Amino acid sequence: MQExxxxxxxxxxxxxxxMAPLEELEQxxxxxxxxxSFEADLHSLLHDYAGRPTPLTRAEQLSAELGCELxxxxxxxxxxxxxxxxxxxxxxxxAKSMGKARILAETGAGQHGVAxxxxxxxLGLECVVYMGEVDVVRQRPNVLRMxxxxxxxxxxxxxxRTLKDAINEAMRAWVSDPEAHYVLGSALGPHPFPSIVADFxxxxxxxxxxxxxxxxxxxxxxxxxxxxxxxxAIGLFRGxxxxxxxxxxxxxxxxxxxxxxxxxARFSGGSPGVLHGCFTWLLQNYDGQIEHTHSxxxxxxxxxxxxxxxxxxxxxxxxxxxxxxxxxLAAFSALSEREGILPALESSHAVGWIMRECEELRxxxxxxxxxxxxxxxxxxxxxxxxxxxxxxxxxxxxxx
Length: 400
Hints:
This protein is α/β, with parallel strands linked by helices. The chain folds into two domains: 13-47 and 84-193, Rossmann fold (3-Layer(aba) Sandwich); 53-81 and 202-384, Rossmann fold, CATH 3.40.50.1100. It has 16 helices and 14 strands. Helix 9 (193-216) crosses helix 10 (231-238) and helix 13 (325-339) crosses helix 14 (345-356). The N and C termini lie far apart (65 Å).
C-alpha cells in the first residue's frame, strides 16, 4: 500500500482477512481514477443521472436576518436527496469494474443506504444494507425506499443500534465475504476508504468554488458543513484547502449539551484512538471503551470522525464547533419558513451554528453545504411540535 495516513491519523487497522481486499481496492482505485473511460462513465452518471452540478443558492431572507452573505450548496437537490450518491455511484462503478457483483453497505440516516441501493439498481448489482434498529424506526421512509429499489435491509439489534453498530455488522459481513465490495459511506475506516470517499465527494468543493466566484465575484470567508463521519464536509473543504483566506468550519452534534454527556462532539469531548479501522478522534472512556452518543440527527450520531478531519484540526487548517439538538431544530424551522427549503437535520446543525454565532460572523460571505433534504426527518420534526393537522384525520373514515 502507498501512504495510508493524514499526518498521524488514519492507517489500516483491519483483520488479516481484509488486507488482500483492501490492497486490491487501492490498486483498482489508483488505476481507474486515471482511466479516461472510467472518468467518462462516472461523469456521465453524475451529470445525466444524478443531476450534477447542483446549484449554489443565496439564502436572501436569512442573509438579511443574520447580517451575513449566506450561500447554500444544494446537495439536497441531487438525485436521492443527499450528497451520498456521489460516493455510492463512484464506488459501485469501481466495484463493477473490479468484477464484483455483491455490494455491502451501512447506513445511519438512511441516505447512504438509499444512495447505494440506487447505484446498485442502476448498475445491476446485488445490495445488502445494514442499519441499526433505532435508525430504522426514526428513518422509516428511507428503509422503504431502499427496499423498493431491491436492496435487502439487515436490521442491527445489538449495541446502541445506531450507525456505529451498523458499521460493525457490515464489516463483519465483509470479513466473511471478501469477494463482495463494501461501500463505506463516510470518509473514515481503514485506508484507502477515507481517501476514496473524499475523492468522490471532491466534486462538491470544486463546483462550490467555481460557483461562488461566478455568482458572488469572490471567494467566501467561511466554508461550513456538518460533520458526522465527515464525507460531505471533506468534499466541500477540499475545494478550498489551497485558499488560505477561506476558513473551514465543521459542525458536530452537540446533542442535549456537552455538559450532559449526551452528544457526539468528538473534538469537544473526545481523544485520539482507533475505531473501525483508523486512528482518529473519538468518544471513549478511560479504558478505551466507546462511549454512547446522542443526536437528534441519525447521520451525526457516531462516536468517531474521519482521519482527514483529525489531521486538518491538528494542523490548524480547520476548526470544529458544535450545535445542539435545539439549535439544529431552530435552523430547520428557519430554513423551512424563510427560504422554503426543508433541510436534513444533519445539515441543520451547520446552519444552527451560524445562527448562534451570527454576531461574530456579521458581514462575512459563507458557503454552507446543505448535504441533504429533510423529508426523512419529518416524523422526528413533527414529534417535537406535538403533531400535525393530518393526525386529526382518520384515513379509514375519509376513504369510506
